[in-house]
Amino acid sequence: MTDDFTSVIRRISGAAAIAAALLCGSCTESEPHPNVILVIVDDLGWRDVGAYGSEFYETPNIDRLAVEGTVFTQFYAASPVCSPTRASIMTGKHPARLHITNWIGGERNGPLLQAEYERQLPLEEFTIGEAFQAEGYATGYIGKWHLGVGEFMPTSQGFDTTIAVNDAGQPASYFYPYKRGQPSVWDVPDLEDGEEGEYLTDRLTDEALGFIQGHRDEPFFLVLAHYAVHTPIQSREESAEFYRRKAGELPSLEGPESAPEGGRAFTKIRQDHAAYGGMVESVDESIGWIMARLAEWGLSENTVVVFTSDNGGLSTLENRPTGAPTSNAPLRAGKGWLYEGGIRMPLIIWRSGGLAGGQPVVDQPAISTDLYPTLLGLAGLDVIPSQHLDGVNLTHLFDEYAEHTGSQLYWHFPHYHGSGNVPSSAVRVGDWKLIEWLESGRVELYDLSTDLSETTDLAPAMPERVAELRQVLANWREQVGAVVPQPNPDWESGRND
Questions:
Q1: Rounded mean pLDDT of 232-250?
Q2: Which of 7, 311, 313, 372 gives a 20 to 30 Å CA spacing to 413?
Q3: DSSP 3-state assignment of 320?
Q4: According to DSSP H, which parts of 255-337 are helical?
Q5: Dist CA 451 CA 431 (whole Å)
Q6: CB-CB contact of 347 with 306 (8 Å)
Q7: Phi-psi region of 357 (alpha: psi -120 to 50; beta: other; left: phi over 0)
Q8: For 298-314, what is each residue's pLDDT tens digit?
Q9: Among the listed ranges 20-24, 80-84, 342-346, which one has the minimum average pLDDT value?
């Protein structure tokens, strides 16, 4: 897999040579700790940028970031939906341990009652914002939060400056004034001085640049959490028109545009959505503007940029064969599912001159809980608090001689979702991945080294392996206190998974 990604980067850049550079942890005490910018793109799929293989969306700035930085090929969200993953990034704890296992507001029952979950990130958690703040960093949060409202907003979680954080998980509109006809939780605040035609991704980038410029003389930690590419799928018309023409040049599909999934859903099989392409383009331009200003203001040499998502791309919808905006192929399914398409996502870490050892591609599995200690490690800060329990500092993987060690990754999504997914848990040990469906207790087993698309269920042929992994998963759920959904006494439809 590493060779495949390296070839993609070479195809994009025309060269793959990346100079070695030392992490700030090896700097002398007289050198300042680096700035850290974390860009989280909402619902961006693993295959939605050129560096990860997209041939439809054009992302030259993100691709350049990948060429000059380090690309993680097997990076995962801790959940297939937003709020739990964002909680894992903020705390370094698994969502199941935090009991934030659903997107906040995603209330739905089925044959099982939805598992109870927290509707906000507790103030007792020592967040990544608070960790940087305690080390003297100026901290800023711009964009989507979705980890609570009122007293649970970023201003109470370690961020000095917050801009455009609404009470929901998506904006009312991507166009100024970013509101609906009547006041709603989806309205985006703080941007009242905008102009007609202004586009939200552009405006959030302008706000980010204002924060950077205002703190250029001191170390800063900035989270730019774009609402894009979440619904509503709205693009600037000139961008959509470009992708509309491009889609028109694609060969005709020989069959339907989606494939059935799980007997209740459909997954889009090709990237060809014009407005979604325009949204991806706007995110790419955002990266380009940020990188250009860092260079202009002399900040490139002392700034780390981290680019990622919060879950897989929205490719799978319940009972709807059309309407999904993207495809995660060759990965199976998308947002809301514990198949690879729902949880595998991009991670690119950039620093001027490259990272230690010059390794352009990291093939070892990692997960969003790892970002907490990794961001602090990139800043040369040895301040991991005792509350942090689940993440691993990934900076050692930038060494080209780092060995692949066995990984155990876990997921617990005990909820129903509009993608058609039903309550489920999963574990990955090495290349083996087991999914357990909590309605029926049925399991599926895949060897990701030979079956990235999860097409061949090996569970019937390998009962011993299934029993082993199932026990590992059960032990972990007990260890973290994962809440398991209970039977719904009022359910009468007889729906099965």
A1: 98
A2: 372
A3: coil
A4: 274-296
A5: 10
A6: yes
A7: left
A8: 999 999 999 999 999 99
A9: 20-24
The burial class, CB within 10 Å (0-12 / 13-18 / 19+), for 483 is middle
Task: Note whether residue 374 is domain-resident.
Answer: yes
Residue 387's CB is within 10 A of a number of other CB atoms, namely 14
Within a domain: residue 454? no
Residue span of the structural domain in which 246 resides: 2-24+33-404
Q: Is residue 415 part of a domain?
A: no
Contact assessment for residue 11 and residue 279, using Cβ atoms and an 8 Å cutoff: no
* Rg, Å, the chain Cα set: 21
Answer for the pair 463, 476: CB distance below 8 angstroms, yes or no.
no
Structure tokens of 241? 């028109």
In the chain, the N- to C-terminal Cα span, in Å, equals 32
Tokens of 3: 């060779």
Q: What is the C-alpha to C-alpha distance for residues 230 and 265, in angstroms, rounded to an integer?
A: 19
Whose tokens are 């993953």? That residue is: 85
CA–CA distances in Å: residue 447 to residues 186, 282, 333, 462: 41, 36, 17, 11
The reported pLDDT for the residue numbered 383 is 74
Provide the CA 402 distance to its chain's centre, in angstroms.
Answer: 25
- Give strand pairing partners of 425: 412, 436
Q: What is the mean pLDDT of residues 441-470?
A: 98
Average pLDDT over residues 404-432: 92
* Residue 108 pLDDT: 94
Task: Decide if pLDDT at 28 tops 50.
Answer: no
Phi-psi region of 298 (alpha: psi -120 to 50; beta: other; left: phi over 0): left
pLDDT of residue 25: 40
- Binned at pLDDT 50, 70 and 90, residue 382 comes out as confident
**Within-domain flag for 75:** yes
Catalytically active residues, by annotation:
82, 146
Least confident of 102-106, 292-296, 353-357, 362-366: 353-357
If one counts every other C-beta atom within 10 angstroms of the C-beta of residue 478, the result is 10
Predicted pLDDT at 295: 97
Omega of the bond leading into 423 within 30 degrees of 0 (cis): no
The total number of structural domains that make up the chain: 1
pTM confidence score: 0.93
